Amino acid sequence: MIGMDIGFGDVKVAYLDGVEIKAFKFSNAIRLKQGSMLDAEASEYEFLGKSFIVTPNPHVNNMPTTTIDYLMRYSPLLAYRALKGPEMKDAVIKGNKIAVGLPIGYFNEKYKTELVNGLTRVIVNKDVIDSAVSVLPQAVGILFDFRLNEKGRSIKGTDIDGVILDVGYNTVDVVIMEKGEAVGDESDMLPGAGITWAVQALQKVLKERWAGYNTSDQLCKEALLTRSIRFQGEVVDLSIKIDEIMENYIEHLKYLIDSKWGKYINSSEKLIVAGGGAYYLKANQHLLPESFQKVLHVPEAPEFSNARGYLKSLLIRG
Amino acid sequence: MVREKITSKIQVKLDSATSDILNLLSTNVRGQVARNAFLMYLRSVEGRQFYGAFGIDLEAEMVRKGLSEGAEPDLFEQVHVEPQKIHGKDTTSDAASSLFRGFDRTQKA
Q1: B105/A135 CB distance under 8 A
Q2: Mean pLDDT of A299-308
Q3: How large is the ipTM?
Q4: DSSP secondary structure of A89-150
């Protein structure tokens, strides 16, 4: 039984090991096996008649990972990596159930069916894994995580009005919560407003600084956290430039959200911010409007909130 | 001749199988399906992949028998095989569904 948040940058997985929820993540970067030195340490997976490397290490020549078609095609491979990778090797997992999310803008029959069909029977490395699959709108996992405990029971006082921001790699999903229930009509997805916005800005800066140097998405994402990057063997400090980029990013995001959902935030008891991008917003919350700051709630380990919520949706008691 | 013989054996079994396979056959690709089935089996371990690819309870033993009667695996080396997806069903529980509403979006092109 696992909750799986297949993002445009990382795959986050939550699972119940006995009675304890545990979580881990890995990069969703995939590339065809090339038989080079790059592949020496990596695990190889045979999928759809080809050999792939699902790599935790950033390489320049990975496939672009920010399209819905990419997620649809490779979600079975990523699910297999999640289930058979080293993290859950010794875990005691009960039941063959997978709960997974779809970005709000793609939450329709076409993609739901495609995702369910892809994950119901996963065939990788001549291994067949059958599972019951549940698909939830992205960011609604954060609501489940907020509202339910580890046994799937409602937490008292969580049936409130609020706004949920799932700041992902590519998209930001915004979900309106009314009395503890997610309301789709008022919720929406902001494509390109995720951390990729800052990644692209950093890529542009580095390209200008080092005459055409192309840096992978994964390396730039890491650099935004470490505030430095390795170039020609040297660690280069990028703090000042990254501060500037993050200020611009938050200003941009603030404008997008406030213009459409400001009225909801003003009347909310909580502004719940989760997803991998939540770390950046929390670290820079002084840049947010006061109305945002007053009700801001960032759950523990926010990047795993969706995955935990998907898992809790499998545990929920009626 | 060998190929026809084996294909014919497979068809008998397929015709009594699930509607998924019958739908495949109705697209006039009988020979292709049979060849793909054989190749899947040849690339698999204990016929498990063969079973998984088509999502039906075809007996690997039947294919093995066909091979022992003279199939020439090289005949099928050029055939590209992609596992057949099976039709799953969203299993989100009513209790979970009661916590969200109105998310179905108009299908994108």
Answers
A1: no
A2: 97
A3: 0.84
A4: TT----SSEEEEEE-GGG-SHHHHHHHHHHHHEEEETTEEEE-EEEEEETTHHHHHHHHB-T
